[in-house]
């Protein structure tokens, strides 16, 4: 052997990670080399110090305390959850954190519309509900320009939305982010394209948030479901005009949300949006739109998405917000069904939820779908049925095959499709997410989390 | 049983399997938090909280073979939160004074080797995890290479680099 042993070779020798020939060679060298023996002594001393410390530390024996705490939090529904820093993988960054923020954006936009209703119905010299409704009548689209928070940075984005003709629902949506990310809805499906991955992740439902077109019916609908709205006025230095400012908070199936929305007192239309995925407007907004433009009839070309031919399509897992896990795991909610399969239990709880909705038994509904217990009865009725009850389910026509689509800490997440008839006489496809709960209570049980996407017209 | 098997069983509803993971990594997590927080009792409390949070977030863990690295990430969050809470409660000056007092403690026995704990805590994540796994979770180098998914040679290189840095930081 020529020269000295490297510290890596010395460590490998010390850790027994060398073969027989290497061991003999290294040990022979050590006998004759003073500097290498000195280095070996350093390594031995450092190891000895660590070994002594580890031995003195003993076994902390925290397993029992940990398991008791877990059991206690599950029992009391006080499970503590945290948002971890996004890991290095671009895919998990995209779908782990930013995706959630997009969900917040989507819900924000949903609430934007609701707050138009709140605002327009509020006592004000300048505003009346009639004027606000008149302002959005005849419009069929919205164009938003702003920024999304992605991995700690604001990234410019643009979003176009088109309402379904003659209905309060959304027909098309596309969000284009400056970094190349595109999210769009086509039919009863939603697509998430991230260029570096060359993959389009898909949901077989309209999950990208905006469930309604902000028409007159929806203004009235959301006026009923948003709480704690505050109204104020300020003078905007950049546009040099007076704007009406709304602050609002809510908790829905997407978790806690807070918003600041600004309206033009002249046009009665929305002019800017900021949304946070927390309850107190803290930190940088997850989404901010500083330009909101209403369109009479957006052209089809706005919603066309051209992708490279080599992209692949991958179905996305269904998830539930971490802050709602404890609520879903509470034993006072859900359905316990000993001796039935996951699919049978899912089907049964979905049938019971619709039976509760059709009969107006909100108490049963809140027991089976605990997120609805966060709202009062009027809010639940407004969410289920729309303003004048046209979207209320009057008949459950068919329940489809349950399919496992994801997992939460409580157990598998199953999606159950159902064909239902609304009060307006039309047939719609609903998809319901059922949380299978393993280890909650002595028996197998399940609970309804909420809808997977929005009702999709079948006619 | 591997970490992946334990996690799979936990997610299938067998919560007791999580106790195996706690037992396997509790010493490493406590050692890391002691170095980070400089306080034995607080480190133990933070370690408990770390495992509890890990349990309730298990479904979010995509790379199950990286459970230990992920666990250390949670431990870091818990330690930061504890620091922030204490700073709020006592005021910044009080927190620094407390830290200075702990740093100045003299005559440590092997269990109170604050210099060593601080040196380990100051290593980069790659180096720290091999030290914690090797000495506080009693993993062989081969086992470490499986746990963190790197070749055996990389493990010994990292150990070598870690020994060197620990020695220098203790001397300083």
Care to describe what's here?
Chain A has 459 residues and is an alpha+beta fold. Chain A is built from eleven helices and 19 strands. In chain A, a hairpin with a 4-residue loop joins strand 7 and strand 8 (241-252). Residues 78-98 and 110-129 of chain A have low confidence and may be disordered. Chain B has one domain (3-171): Rna Polymerase Sigma Factor, Chain: A. In chain B, 76% of the residues lie in helices and 0% in strands. In chain B, helix 7 crosses helix 9 and helix 8 (141-148) packs across helix 9. The radius of gyration of chain B is 17 Å and the shape is flat.
Secondary structure layout:
The complex is a heterodimer of chains A (459) and B (172).
Chain A: H1 7-14, H2 20-32, H3 34-57, H4 63-76, H5 90-121, H6 129-136, E1 141-150, E2 153-163, E3 170-177, E4 182-185, E5 190-194, E6 199-203, H7 216-225, E7 227-236, E8 241-252, E9 255-263, E10 270-276, E11 287-295, E12 312-315, H8 325-329, E13 335-336, H9 342-359, H10 362-368, H11 377-385, E14 393-399, E15 403-408, E16 411-422, E17 427-437, E18 445-451, E19 456-457
Parallel strand pairs in A: 6-12
Antiparallel strand pairs in A: 1-2, 1-11, 2-3, 3-4, 4-5, 5-6, 7-8, 8-9, 9-10, 10-11, 13-18, 14-16, 15-16, 16-17, 17-18, 17-19
Chain B: H1 3-11, H2 18-37, H3 40-56, H4 67-90, H5 92-103, H6 114-121, H7 125-136, H8 141-148, H9 152-171
Helix pairs in contact in B: 2-3, 2-4, 2-6, 2-7, 3-4, 4-5, 6-9, 7-9, 8-9
CATH second-level architecture of chain B:
Orthogonal Bundle
Mean pLDDT of chain B: 78
CATH homologous superfamily of the largest domain in chain A, by name?
A: Lipoprotein localisation LolA/LolB/LppX
CATH fold group of the largest domain in chain A: outer membrane lipoprotein receptor (LolB), chain A
The radius of gyration of chain A is: 28 Å
Contiguous low-pLDDT stretches of chain B (5 residues minimum) are: 92-97, 99-111
Distance between the termini of chain A: 83 Å
End-to-end separation of chain B in angstroms reads 41 Å
Order of helices and strands of chain A: HHHHHHEEEEEEHEEEEEEHEHHHEEEEEE
Strand order, sheet with most strands of chain A: 7-8-9-10-11-1-2-3-4-5-6-12
How many domains, in number, for the residues of chain A?
Answer: 3
Low confidence ranges of chain A: 78-98, 110-129
Our count of domains of chain B comes out at: 1
Helix content of chain A: 25-40%
Number of helices of chain B: 9
Count of alpha and pi helical runs of chain A? 11
Describe the biggest sheet of chain A?
12 strands, mixed
How much strand content do the residues of chain A show?
Answer: 25-35%
Q: Provide the CATH superfamily of chain B.
A: RNA polymerase sigma factor, region 2, helix turn helix motif
The number of distinct β-strands of chain B equals: 0
């Amino acid at each position: 052997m020529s020269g000295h042993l490297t510290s890596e070779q010395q460590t490998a020798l010390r850790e027994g990670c060398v073969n027989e020939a290497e061991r003999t060679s290294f040990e022979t060298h050590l006998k004759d080399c003073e500097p290498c023996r000195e280095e070996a002594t350093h390594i031995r001393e450092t190891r000895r110090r660590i070994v002594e410390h580890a031995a003195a530390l003993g076994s902390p024996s925290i397993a029992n305390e940990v398991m008791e705490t877990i059991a206690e939090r599950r029992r009391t529904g006080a499970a503590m959850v945290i948002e971890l820093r996004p890991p290095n993988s671009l895919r998990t960054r995209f779908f782990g954190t930013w995706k959630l923020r997009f969900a917040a954006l989507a819900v924000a936009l949903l609430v934007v519309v609701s707050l138009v209703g709140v605002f327009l119905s509020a006592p004000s010299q300048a505003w009346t509900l009639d004027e606000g409704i008149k302002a959005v009548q005849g419009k069929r689209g919205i164009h938003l320009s702003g920024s999304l928070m992605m991995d700690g940075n604001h990234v410019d984005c643009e979003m176009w939305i088109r309402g379904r003709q003659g209905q309060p629902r959304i027909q098309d949506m596309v969000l284009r982010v400056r970094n190349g990310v595109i999210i769009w809805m086509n039919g009863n499906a939603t697509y998430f394209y991230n260029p570096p991955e060359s993959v389009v992740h898909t949901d077989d439902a309209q999950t990208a948030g905006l469930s309604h077109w902000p028409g007159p019916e929806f203004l009235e609908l959301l006026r009923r479901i948003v709480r704690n709205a505050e109204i104020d006025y300020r003078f905007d230095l950049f546009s040099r005009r007076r704007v009406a400012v709304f602050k609002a908070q809510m908790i829905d199936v997407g978790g806690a949300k807070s918003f600041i929305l600004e309206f033009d007192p002249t046009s009665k239309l929305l002019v800017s949006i900021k949304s946070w995925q927390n309850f107190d407007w803290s930190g940088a907004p997850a989404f901010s739109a500083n330009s909101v433009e209403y369109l009479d009839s957006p052209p089809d070309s706005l919603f066309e998405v051209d992708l490279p031919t080599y992209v692949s399509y991958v179905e996305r897992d269904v998830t539930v917000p971490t802050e709602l896990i404890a609520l879903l795991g509470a034993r006072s909610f859900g359905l316990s069904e000993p001796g039935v399969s996951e699919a049978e239990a899912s089907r049964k709880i979905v049938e019971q939820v619709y039976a509760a909705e059709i009969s107006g038994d909100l108490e049963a509904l809140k027991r089976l779908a605990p997120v609805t217990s966060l709202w009062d009865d009027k809010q639940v009725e407004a969410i289920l049925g729309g303003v004048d009850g046209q979207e209320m389910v009057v008949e459950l026509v068919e329940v489809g095959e349950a399919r496992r689509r994801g997992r939460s800490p409580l157990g598998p997440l199953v999606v159950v499709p159902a064909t239902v008839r609304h009060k307006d006489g039309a047939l719609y496809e609903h998809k319901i997410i059922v949380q299978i709960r393993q280890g909650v209570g002595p028996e197998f049980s399940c609970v309804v989390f909420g809808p997977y996407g929005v009702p999709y017209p079948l006619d | 049983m591997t970490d992946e098997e334990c996690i799979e069983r936990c997610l299938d509803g067998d919560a007791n399997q999580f106790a195996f993971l706690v037992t396997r990594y509790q010493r490493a997590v406590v050692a890391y938090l002691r170095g980070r927080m400089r306080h034995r009792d607080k480190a133990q409390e933070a370690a408990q909280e770390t495992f509890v949070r890990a349990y309730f977030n298990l479904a979010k863990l995509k790379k199950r073979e990286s459970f230990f690295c992920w666990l250390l990430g949670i431990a870091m969050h818990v330690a930061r939160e504890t620091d922030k809470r204490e700073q709020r409660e006592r005021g910044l000056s009080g927190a620094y004074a407390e830290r200075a007092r702990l740093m100045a403690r003299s005559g440590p026995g092997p269990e109170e080797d604050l210099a060593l704990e601080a040196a380990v805590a100051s290593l980069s994540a790659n180096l720290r995890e091999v030290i914690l796994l090797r000495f506080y979770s009693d993993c062989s180098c081969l086992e470490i290479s499986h746990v963190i998914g790197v070749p055996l040679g990389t493990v010994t290189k990292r150990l070598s680099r870690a020994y060197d840095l620990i020695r220098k930081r203790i001397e300083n």
